[in-house]
């Protein structure tokens, strides 16, 4: 809330997003919602985590929309937006300096990699280094939403192997040759592990038997079961960790 108010006061005329192809300033975004800085309160933002938040991923996700507006999430809480995630980085830097001041508090923050394309890691690392979202009191955990079915139905990919390759191939390449992307190499030093996220209350058929298909043959429109996702994440991270250990680099945990 403090950050939104301060930014609205000092950077009201900064262009923050495109609406139907037209650039919009921060002031215009708030005007389109009939809001001024005086109206904003913590309760209105409605981003508190209560006891219902953690059981259902959709509710958890909804909490990332301040005032229930996805446009504010786009402006303030994304690394990949019209301003290249500038505001999100500033918020993180402020949180980091608070942690450093209090000395004995540490935080483990999350960033998402969606597995939609192989360029995601490079973009994320570029953002992290450009805005120096680094602190001795902070580490990054990468969360990977289980969105294969959405990508498949939107014809972004043909099979589950493509999803896995998008997530892990850049990591193997940069571990094998850090100079192939020095930004990603530096960023990974501050990443401690991976999480797999989705709505765990969804019903699914969890049967994994010897007939279950390998990722390259998994071309169904529906998502593989949770256990299938986890096994292939675990298998890739294990091999990646062996490779990184040999190079004397940090390794990752799987903490779903």
Automatic annotation (TrEMBL):
Name the Enzyme Commission number(s) assigned to this protein. 3.5.4.6
Q: What are the names of the required cofactors?
A: Zn(2+)
Alphabetized, the UniProt keywords read:
Hydrolase, Metal-binding, Nucleotide metabolism, Zinc
> Pathway, per Swiss-Prot/TrEMBL?
Purine metabolism; IMP biosynthesis via salvage pathway; IMP from AMP: step 1/1
Task: List GO molecular-function terms, semicolon-separated.
Answer: AMP deaminase activity; metal ion binding
Write down the top EC class of this protein: hydrolase
Please give the biological process terms from Gene Ontology that the record holds.
Answer: AMP metabolic process; IMP salvage
Q: Which GO terms describe its cellular component?
A: cytosol
Q: Pfam families this protein is in?
A: AMP_deaminase
InterPro entries, per this entry?
Answer: AMPD, Metal_Hydrolase
* Recorded family membership: Belongs to the metallo-dependent hydrolases superfamily. Adenosine and AMP deaminases family.
What protein name applies here? AMP deaminase
